[in-house]
Amino acid sequence: MTGSTPSEMMNLRLILVSGKTKEFLFSPNDSAADIAKHVYDNWPMDWEEEQVSSPNILRLIYQGRFLHGNVTLGALKLPLGKSTVMHLVARETLPEPNSQGQRNREKTGESNCCVIL
C-alpha cells in the first residue's frame, strides 16, 4: 500500500503461512470476523493458491494469540493511522483460551491456588 493511512483507520498487513502479504484498511470497530469476511470477499489475486472455501475458517493471529471473532481492532488498542502486522491462517477451530497454560501447569505440577503463610 502506498501513501499514508487515514488517521481514523488502521492498516493491517496480513501475512499468510506461505509468506505472502497484503495490506488492508479497517476501522477500529471492525471485528476479527468482519476482517476475515472482508479478506475472503476481496481475496487477492496473488493469493490464489491459498484460497479457502469459507471466511469462517480464516483466523487472525496477533502477538502470538488467535483473535476470537468478536474482538475488535479498537479493543486491541491498535494505533490509528498506523500499520499493524497480523498473521492470517486457515483453521477450523480455535484453541480454548487457556488450554496452553493449563497444559503447562499439568506438566510442571503448578496450580492456581495460593499458599497463605
From TrEMBL:
Entry coiled-coil feature ranges: none
One GO CC term, this protein: plasma membrane
Name of the protein in question: Ubiquitin-like protein
Membrane topology summary: Lipid-anchor
Subcellular location: Cell membrane
Organism classification: Eukaryota, Metazoa, Chordata, Craniata, Vertebrata
Ubiquitin-like domain span: 10-88
CDD domains: Ubl_UBL3 (cd17048)
SUPFAM superfamilies documented for this protein: Ubiquitin-like (SSF54236)
Top-level taxon of origin: Eukaryota
Keywords of the record: Cell membrane, Lipoprotein, Membrane, Methylation, Palmitate, Prenylation
InterPro entries (UniProt xref): MUB, Ubiquitin-like_dom, Ubiquitin-like_domsf, UBL3-like, UBL3-like_ubiquitin_dom, UBL3_Ubl_met
Pfam families registered for this protein in UniProt: Rad60-SLD_2
